[in-house]
Design goal:
Number of domains of chain B: 4
Distance between the termini of chain B: 58 Å
Shape of chain A: globular
Shape of chain B: flat
Number of helices of chain A: 15
CATH architecture of chain A: Up-down Bundle
Strand order of the largest sheet of chain B: 3-2-1-5-8
Radius of gyration of chain B: 31 Å
Helix content of chain B: 25-40%
Structural class of chain B: alpha+beta
CATH superfamily of the largest domain in chain B: Cupredoxins -  blue copper proteins
CATH topology of chain A: Cytochrome C Oxidase, Chain A
Strand content of chain A: under 5%
Distance between the termini of chain A: 40 Å
Oligomer: heterodimer
CATH class of the largest domain in chain B: Mainly Beta
CATH architecture of the largest domain in chain B: Sandwich
Radius of gyration of chain A: 23 Å
Order of helices and strands of chain A: HHHHHHHHHHHHHHH
Largest interface: A-B, 91 and 87 residues
Number of domains of chain A: 1
Strand content of chain B: 15-25%
Number of strands of chain B: 16
Helix content of chain A: 55-70%
CATH topology of the largest domain in chain B: Immunoglobulin-like
Number of helices of chain B: 10
Chain lengths: ~550, ~400
């Protein structure tokens, strides 16, 4: 996916260095170009993942075989999960918007290590390529689920080792991005950009970066151990040889639960930028929102065991993990209340970024509140490993992080293209997505409460009606996504030109031209007010 | 909570409703406030913001403390319900659930096995969970119980069916291509009916226990060797010459003779054995005699040919191999016997006839010759006896 260089007459990072063509992009160390490379890469994988998800829903439309056999179905949900999690949602916010926006928001000319930044993208591409190759070589695409639980993933004849190796490589991309962002935020803030004036999107990326640095190495080790089990027969997780299958689950979730916060924290950060701007009011409770990002990142690193309440883990461990899980709910609630309070006595404009941000609050709340049912030990036992979990995490990951990502695309991409999308089709796309989303995933939660397990190729007749409803919902949802992308990119390509500050934002990216020049700022900015002080921006 | 007063469903459902209602109130509150603000302060009504408030300490304290109290209540309630799921009533009946790719088998205390989980209504059941291969999940939605079945680990679950009926039992932990076919049922039946069912066709561990209890096995072997008394192997229906009051006569061993030989052994002694067995009249109950005689009878039954159809169901063959010609995970059984199949052996493709030898080998060593187009994923069944394999082959041949 190479972005096409557009004919922009004003000097900007698209053309002011005089370097164009594919090589000038894929070897560029400019944070904006790397951010766009990430954007197109993750969007390509989002479309792949969405197609696989759509096929899954068609297969589940009716009991029995609809379009594919059970082996293909198992590969579909495995690859859907791997692609969406490791190739779309984890790199999406830090890679695309973190890169494009964060250095400008803190008044820097680039990230601290621009070459390392380019290496991160290349590692991502390399890992992704290996994953794609694993689908078409060996004895077929992996069929283990994205969790690669042992001993099954040791026994299956499918191409698990290569896919796992690809994910291992992608992990390094994430670690390097984390290191780069922590260093950048510590070292490259402009004069006057104190920690208390840091935009909350930057705060959320900062918390995320620490999780990336600290948790991802554990995923790396875990994945190497899977490969060792398969190729060397080490038996680390094989009870017949003194191993323990539960130890694998601990190792996997020690990373993969905090990974949920890598996905959701920057999404929360993005809507924290959007809501004040479209309400023309300072964010309510700046310190509490910044603090809650750090609290979620720290406490969220200690709750992995709530994925294992039925595993046979000790009751004492369940007591502790259930308690910590409820503790994480508190900072999430604080954020929601502060977002809603920001609206009070504002002047609210319901443009596309704001609609996505507000629907984020609703969908994330549903995802978070259903998480309480999963966090309570007794109720977890009934709904764990059912479609309730599938519905729940899609509310958090797609209704949360996904909707925030689409909101962020409408909010920030005009800045980097200098043109904007058309508003009415964007609203129509939002309506389709919002309705389709709820039909698709709410049906899944109902199925789960009725007892339909997840990862089921076939199901009993009593589950048929809701599965059909869910599938129809997925068609509405997908048509909304397609409309959204067409309208957005059509607008970025030939839409109405915008000035520096189309939304009336008070953060630094709105003080420079759209699209920005390569060096971002003519002279190093001096920050004199907070990120949400709209009285100082000279806007009406 | 006293587990004797509560079912697993009663341990989970109130917690679910408690959390659900709190969440619903919170969600409606948040959404209604948001929608109200959006309408009331829409730019068309409020062209300028009328406040620049950026925080309020008391509000922050309230909306930190209130959720904290609510979630701690949820945590506590959820935890106490969970304890009821772990606390098995003392009078629970033990059953062992054995999971394998991709079927369930339930073993009762008397050794009887069944592909469905038959339970008496009103009796708590403690299920010991055993996996023969990968992770599985034991899940009965109706009773809200779920526990992973982990190889090499002793896990358990308990439940009680308070009403007769058939309840779905799923595998909840992904275990490969037959995962969604790894379904069976809990059949809750009245206790009287259950004890009849349990005694039928069991492998007779109950009878065997009684034989041990009364010391029978000291003199009578179960494996055909002659000890002080005649062997009990194949005793049912055996022709014997007995000595009655000094006179020899020929009999066929059946219920009247066996019953009499337990209660009053000296009456008819098998020729060639000394009349030294003590009488058990007054020591043993009629029910126990019935169990022992059933044991002899079933011992005889088990010596006869195994039932191929029963085996195909119990061992989970039918989860992957259809009987009606539809393509499953493995080739259909319909028309398989005698057909020409293309197989992959040691990386070389060749065509063979699926004769008895091929079918036998495919059951014994599934990975040796896999039919083209299918994954080499069929597990081995080392526990099958040769006559059981033969019965399966006959069963497959029966589906033309």
């Amino acid at each position: 996916m190479t972005p096409i260089v557009r004919p922009v007459t004003v000097p900007s990072f698209w053309n002011d260095t005089g370097k164009s063509g594919v090589a000038a992009w894929i070897f560029s160390t400019d944070h904006k170009r790397i951010g766009l490379l990430y954007l197109y890469s993750v969007l390509a994988f989002f479309l792949v993942g969405m197609t696989l998800g759509g096929l899954l829903r068609i297969e589940l439309m009716a009991p029995g075989r609809t379009i594919v056999g059970p082996q293909t179905y198992n590969a579909l949900f495995t690859v859907h999960g791997v692609v969406m999690i490791f190739l779309f949602i984890i790199p999406a916010f830090p890679g695309a918007f973190g890169n494009m926006v964060m250095p400008i928001q803190i008044g820097a000319r680039d990230v601290a290590f621009p070459r390392l930044n380019l290496l991160s993208w290349w590692l991502y591409v390399l890992g992704a390529t290996i994953i794609i190759v694993s689908l078409f070589t060996g004895d077929g695409p992996p069929d283990t689920g994205w969790t690669f639980y042992l001993p099954f993933s040791e026994r299956t004849g499918t191409n698990v080792s290569l896919a796992v190796f690809g994910v291992f490589i992608v992990g390094f991309s994430s670690i390097l991005t984390g290191i780069n962002f922590v260093t950048t935020i510590h070292q490259l803030r402009a004069e006057g950009m104190s920690w208390g004036r840091l935009p909350l999107f930057v705060w959320s990326l900062y918390a995320t970066a620490w999780v990336q640095i600290l948790a991802t190495p554990i995923l790396g080790i875990t994945l190497v151990l899977i490969i060792a089990e398969r190729l060397l027969g080490t038996g680390l997780f094989d009870p017949g040889r003194g191993g323990d299958p539960l130890m694998y689950q601990h190792l996997f979730w020690i990373y993969s639960h905090p990974a949920v916060y890598i996905m959701i924290l920057p999404a929360m950060g993005a809507i924290t930028e959007i809501i004040p701007v479209f309400s023309r009011k300072p964010i309510f409770g700046y310190k509490m929102i910044a603090f809650s990002s750090i609290a979620i990142a720290s406490a969220g690193s200690l709750v992995w065991g709530h994925h294992m309440f039925t595993s046979g883990m000790s009751d004492r461990a369940i007591l502790i993990f259930s308690f910590l899980t409820f503790v994480v709910a508190i900072p999430s609630a604080i954020k929601v209340f502060n977002w809603v309070s920001t609206l009070y006595k504002g002047s609210i404009s319901l443009e596309a970024p704001m609609l996505f941000a507000l629907s984020f609050i609703l969908l994330f709340s549903i995802g978070g509140l259903t998480g309480l049912i999963l966090g309570a030990a007794a109720t977890n036992i009934h709904v764990h490993d059912t479609h309730f979990v599938v519905g729940h995490f899609h509310y958090v990951m797609f209704g949360g992080a996904g909707f925030a990502f689409f909101g962020a695309m409408h909010y920030w991409l005009p800045k980097f293209y200098g043109r904007r999308y058309a508003e009415k089709p964007a609203l129509a796309a939002w309506v389709l997505m919002f309705i389709g989303f709820n039909i698709t995933y709410f049906s899944m939660m109902l199925l789960g409460v009725k007892g339909m397990p997840r990862r089921y190729y076939d199901y009993l007749p009593e589950f048929a009606p809701l599965n059909l409803v869910s599938t129809v919902g997925s068609w509405i949802l997908i048509s909304g996504v397609i409309l959204l992308l067409i309208n957005l990119f059509r607008g970025l390509w030939k839409g109405e030109p915008i000035g520096n500050n189309p939304w009336g934002g008070a953060t630094l990216e709105w003080t420079i031209p759209s699209p920005p020049p390569t060096e971002n700022f003519d002279a190093d900015p001096v920050v004199t007010h907070g990120p949400y002080d709209f009285r100082k921006t000279g806007m009406p | 909570m006293n587990p004797l007063l509560i079912t697993t469903t009663q341990a989970v459902d109130p917690v679910f409703l408690f959390i659900f209602w709190i969440c619903l109130v919170l969600l409606i509150g948040i959404t209604a406030t948001m929608v109200f603000f959006v309408i009331r302060y829409h730019r068309s009504r409020a062209p300028q913001p009328t406040s620049q408030a950026d925080g309020n300490l008391w509000l922050e304290i309230i909306w930190t403390a209130l959720p904290a109290v609510l979630v701690l209540a949820m945590f506590y309630y959820g935890w106490s319900g969970y304890l009821s799921l772990r606390d098995v009533p003392k009078d629970a009946m033990p059953v062992t659930a054995t999971a394998r790719m991709w079927s369930w088998s339930f073993t009762y205390a008397n050794g009887k096995t069944s592909p469905k989980l038959y339970v008496p209504v009103g009796k708590p059941i403690r299920v010991e969970l055993v996996s023969q291969d990968v992770l599985h999940g034991f899940y009965i939605p109706a009773f809200r119980v779920k526990r992973d079945v982990v190889p090499g680990m002793k896990n358990y679950a308990w439940f009680v069916a308070t009403r007769a009926g058939s309840y779905d039992l799923f595998c909840s932990q992904y275990c490969g291509v037959g995962h969604s076919k790894m379904i069976t049922t809990v059949e809750a039946i009245p206790p009287a009916e259950f004890s009849v069912w349990l005694d039928q066709g069991g492998s007779g561990a109950g009878g065997k226990k009684l034989l041990e209890k009364y010391g029978c096995l000291g003199c009578h072997s179960l494996d055909g060797t002659t000890k002080v008394g005649p062997s009990l192997k194949g005793v049912w229906g055996r022709k014997e010459i007995v000595v009655t009051n000094g006179a020899e006569r020929s009999i066929t061993e059946g219920e009247p003779y066996l019953r009499q030989s337990i209660l009053d052994p000296k009456a008819d002694v098998v020729k060639g054995f000394p009349p030294i067995m003590p009488a058990f009249a007054g020591t043993i109950t009629q029910e126990e005699i019935a169990v022992i005689i059933d044991f002899f009878r079933s011992d005889a039954a088990s010596a006869s040919k195994p039932d191929g159809e029963q085996l195909a169901k119990e061992k989970g063959c039918l989860a992957c191999h259809s009987l009606d010609g539809t393509r499953g995970v493995g080739p259909t059984f319909k028309g398989l016997a005698g057909s020409r199949v293309t197989v992959l052996k040691d990386g070389v493709t060749r065509t063979v006839t699926a004769d008895d030898a091929y079918l036998r080998e495919s059951i014994r060593m599934p990975a040796a010759e896999v039919v083209e187009g299918f994954q080499p994923i069929m597990p081995t069944f080392p526990e099958l006896q040769d006559d059981q394999v033969a019965a399966l082959v006959e069963f497959i041949k029966g589906h033309k």
